[in-house]
């Protein structure tokens, strides 16, 4: 996997806790980051509600950060129609790490840890999307120029990063989850209902519920110009090469070479599109 070196060599590389062994399918490919559980933070009796809300939603401590977040979200997030679009265009950049020109935020676009979300120019984020950059030591979410995010899509970090290259187009009802690093290249076309699963569960101990075992993550990389068919599932640790095509409803468990066409469950390469630039 191209990004394997990114996770090796140190136990806190890029701010992630890195385990030196993992029992998941991708053990040979890359060490995996261990994922904390949000519930542990949420039900921690030693922490007050305001601090929990700040840690899980606002992303910054202090009363000013909390009030600024509440002001913007209460005023703009649920507002319908043209007034809502105008308010979000004006106010959301106040919370974001960076925001370019001509960025459209649909109704009910929710932001978590917005100071770790950086957005380029000419970006559309349709109604009901969630951009969640949550994490203690992560960089968060970056959307390049010309990115489109379809309605109801979730970009969810658990101390991971999500990076969408210029012109990437993510359809309706997709989920991109990252507990380490999910990279979507330039001009990738991701059809509706795609699930990019950038994190996994250790299930090696049959005596223990899976939910009580470690969570691990190696990340997912999707190369420039790839096309992901509707309803595909891309499992943790996978790299899809540039200009590859993934068939509708495929479950991708292994790397897919550049310009290959892979279909089915599990996804197998059935053809190649030939040389790509
Ligand atoms: C992957 C895809 C592009 C292949 O198209 P194609 O090159 O015309 O493929 P073919 O029809 O020649 O099929 C090649 C083989 O793969 C199989 N196949 C194709 N798509 C498949 C899929 N999604 N799942 C399982 N098998 C599939 C075919 O049955 C055929 O198998 P066979 O050789 O045993 O008969 C297309 O089938 C597909 O899934 N497109 C995604 C559409 C989509 O999600 N659009 C959303 C809009 S953005």
Q: List the total number of helices.
A: 5
Determine Rg (CA atoms, Å): 19 Å
Structural class estimated from helices and strands: alpha/beta
CATH structural architecture of the domain at 5-34 and 135-272:
3 Solenoid
Beta-strand percent range = 25-35%
Report on the biggest sheet: 9 strands, mixed
Write a structural description:
By secondary structure, the chain is of the alpha/beta class. It has a domain at about 5-35 and about 135-270: Hexapeptide repeat proteins (UDP N-Acetylglucosamine Acyltransferase, domain 1, 3 Solenoid), CATH 2.160.10. It contains five helices and 26 strands. It has helices at about 5, 40, 50-60, 65-75, 80-95; strands at about 35, 100, 105, 110, 115-120, 125, 130, 140-145, 150, 155, 160-165, 170, 175-180, 180-185, 190, 195-200, 200, 215, 220, 225-230, 235, 240, 245, 250, 260-265, 270. The protein has a nine-stranded mixed sheet. The protein has a seven-stranded parallel sheet with strand order 2-5-8-11-14-19-22, with no helix packed on it. α4 (about 65-75) runs antiparallel to α5. The chain is globular and about 55 Å long. The model is unreliable at about 1-30 (pLDDT under 50). Bound molecules: coenzyme A. Coenzyme A binds near residues 230, 245, 248 and 263.
């Amino acid at each position: 996997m191209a990004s394997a070196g990114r996770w090796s060599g140190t136990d806190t590389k890029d701010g992630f806790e890195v385990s030196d062994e993992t029992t998941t399918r991708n053990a040979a490919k890359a060490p995996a980051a261990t994922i904390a559980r949000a519930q542990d933070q949420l039900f921690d009796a030693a922490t007050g509600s305001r601090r929990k809300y700040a840690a899980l939603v606002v992303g910054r401590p202090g009363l000013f950060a909390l009030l600024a977040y509440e002001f913007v979200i209460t005023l703009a997030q649920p507002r319908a129609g043209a007034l809502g679009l105008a308010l979000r265009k004006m106010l959301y950049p106040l919370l974001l790490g960076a925001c370019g020109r001509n960025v459209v935020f649909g109704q009910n676009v929710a932001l978590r840890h917005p100071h770790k979300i950086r957005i380029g120019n000419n970006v559309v984020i349709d109604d009901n999307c969630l951009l969640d950059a949550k994490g203690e030591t992560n960089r968060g979410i970056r959307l390049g120029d010309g990115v489109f995010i379809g309605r109801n899509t979730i970009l969810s970090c658990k101390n991971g990063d999500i990076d969408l290259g210029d012109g990437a187009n993510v359809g309706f009802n997709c989920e991109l989850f990252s507990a380490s690093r999910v990279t979507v290249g330039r001009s990738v076309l991701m059809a509706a209902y795609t699930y990019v699963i950038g994190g996994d569960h250790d299930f090696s101990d049959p005596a223990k519920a899976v939910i009580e075992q470690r969570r691990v993550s190696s990340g997912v990389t999707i190369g420039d110009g790839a096309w992901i068919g509707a309803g595909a599932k891309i499992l943790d640790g996978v790299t899809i090469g540039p200009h590859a095509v993934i068939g509708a409803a495929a479950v991708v468990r292994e790397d897919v070479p550049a310009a290959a066409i892979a279909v089915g469950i599990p996804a197998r390469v059935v053809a190649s599109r030939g040389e790509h630039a």
